[in-house]
Amino acid sequence: MLRIKRVPTVVSNYQKEEAEEVTRRGGGCGRNCLNKCCIEGANLPLYLFKSVNKSETGKGVFENENSEPPVAFLDSLLLGEWEDRMQRGLFRYDVTACETKVIPGEYGFIAQLNEGRHLKKRPTEFRVDKVLQPFDGNKFNFTKVGQEEVLFQFEASEDGEVQFFPNAPIDVENSPSVVAINVSPIEYGHVLLIPRVLECLPQRIDRDSFLLALHMAAEAGNQYFRLGYNSLGAFATINHLHFQAYYLAVPFPIEKAPTKKMTSMDNGVQISELLNYPVRGLVFEGGNAVVDLSNTVSDACICLQENNIPYNVLISDCGKRIFLLPQCYAEKQALGEVSAEILDTQVNPAVWEISGHMVLKRKEDYEEASEENAWRLLAEVSLSEERFQEVNALIFEAISSGDTTNGDVAKGLLEEADVEPPALEEVGAINTSSRCTMVPGTQECLVRQ
Fold first, then answer.
1. Helix 404-417 to helix 385-399 angle, to the nearest 10 degrees?
2. CB distance 427 to 306 below 8 Å
3. Which residues are within 8 A (CB) of 379 and not within 5 positions of it... i.e. 6 or more apart?
4. What is the pTM of this model?
5. Is residue 269 a contact partner of residue 296, using CB atoms and an 8 Å limit?
6. Selected catalytic residue, list 190, 240, 242, 357
7. Which of 163, 253, 377, 387 can pair with 356 through a Cys bridge, CB separation 3.0 to 4.6 Å?
8. Which residues contact 372 (CB under 8 A, 6 or more apart)?
9. pLDDT in tens, 74-125
10. Whether 165 contacts 46, CB under 8 Å
11. What tens digit of pLDDT does each residue of 299-351 get?
12. Going by C-beta distance under 8 Å and a sequence separation of 6 or more, which residues neighbour residue 361?
């Protein structure tokens, strides 16, 4: 038997045993949460964004507006409200006091010593070998957070104008998307985007939710504000649909890595392959309209989900450049193929670590941080070249419907990788050479060969 220790990040102050016990009592919980016991008659700030039509625009969301937006989305609203919650003591630690440095070397990996994220963790509450799992309302989810942790509602404007309402009712019938703080932040301004929060969607990307994330990146209009997504099996810790985002004023190493163009689709989306980077991945950019880029990437994500392939996504450059990174670290961990030295760091390589922002939990790892050590860890995350080509073939087949150019690309990749697309009954077997179930009452994952 092999075991994996699983210690997820606490993202809400109500993600605690005592708070869950209160919730189980039924009736009004007294916590002013987002659940039905407290939501009726509640009000939260509301930001209505204008949809971006062209993904290639470089002048921001409001380039054609004659008037200033009612509130500066990133500086005044998101970061301003985030700092307000910091002043109110809602975070588990002061992330601005964490030591951070750029590691010397060609790539400029960023190391942060964040010992606070290592404390008082609870075991994960879902299987780590299944990318798609049903939502379970009995487990922690974002309807259980306090309304004071929510910064604002984030919705599309019906009349095409940017609007802001500092105190708007929550439309329970049309579940709002909200932006909330992560109480265990990795960086300044660390927030969660939770699409249609009251629908209680599991952690799986769909077209609408991904487009919403791109709109948030575009609305921020700042290259140093990125959004990330972790699937189940790729170090998502909550099975309730959410993206993460924060502000870090340095380039990520993955953003500086060279790429090789693979193809351009009929809708103008260009797909490239990462080169000379420890984690193999795809880069999507361009498109005749933002919805083209969004649909292409979300369809690729859906393909990975349906084939049970864990993955991470980084939304970069104000939503105009997207990195898709299938990974296999948890599988290697389950099979005992990761060295004890790397496991001892207790670093879970999710989207931020893969992008080059290494969040370290031990002082000795921070002091000894080097480009070589960062590369060694991330190399364990990457699919092999052969497996990566197999996965690429699946992705290109999924996104090439009606696209003659990429139908040929998909066929060529399939032939090169010498694989056939999986039958439906085989979905779930891909990338799962082991089965993993949480051991009750422990922080361990039991793997059966």
1. 150
2. yes
3. 278, 279
4. 0.85
5. yes
6. 242
7. 253
8. none
9. 999 999 999 999 999 999 999 999 999 999 999 999 999 998 665 544 455 5
10. yes
11. 999 999 999 999 999 999 999 999 999 999 999 998 999 999 999 999 999 99
12. 113, 114, 115, 117, 118, 345, 346, 347
The reply to whether 190 belongs to the active site is no
Contact 175, 278 (CB under 8 A): no
Burial 351-369, CB ≥16 within 10 A → b, else e:
bbbbbbbbbbbeeebbeeb
Q: Distance between CA atoms of 345 and 290, rounded to whole angstroms?
A: 39
- Calculate mean pLDDT across residues 417-427: 44
Length of the chain equals 449
- H/E/C letters for each residue in the chain? CEEEECCCCCCCCCCCHHHHHHHHCCCCCCCCECCHHHHCCCEEEEEEECCCCCCCCCCCCCCCCCCCCCCCHHHHHHHHHHHHHHHCCCCCCCHHHCCEEECCCCCCCEEEECHHHHCCCCCCCCCCCCCCCCCCCCCCCHHHCEHHHEEEEEEECCCCCCEEEEEEECCCCCCCCEEEECCCCCCCCCEEEECCHHHCCCCCCCHHHHHHHHHHHHHHCCCCEEEEEECCCCCCCCCCCCEEEEECCCCCHHHHCCEEEEEECCCCEEEEEECCCCCCCEEEEECCCHHHHHHHHHHHHHHHHHCCCCEEEEEEHHHCEEEEEECCHHHHHHCCCCCHHHHCCCCCCCHHHHHCEEEECCHHHHHCCCHHHHHHHHHCCCCCHHHHHHHHHHHHHHHCCCCHHHHHHHHHHHHHHCCCCCCHHHCCCCCCCCEEEECCCCCEEEEEC
Please give the single-letter amino acid code of residue 422. Answer: P
Sheet of 357-360, strands arranged across: 100-102, 110-113, 357-360
Type of residue found at 16: K
Q: Which two tokens stand for residue 263?
A: 């193809």
Tokens of 211: 């487009």
Residue 426: count of CB within 10 angstroms of its CB: 12
Dihedral angle sign, alpha carbons of residues 191, 195, 201, 205: negative
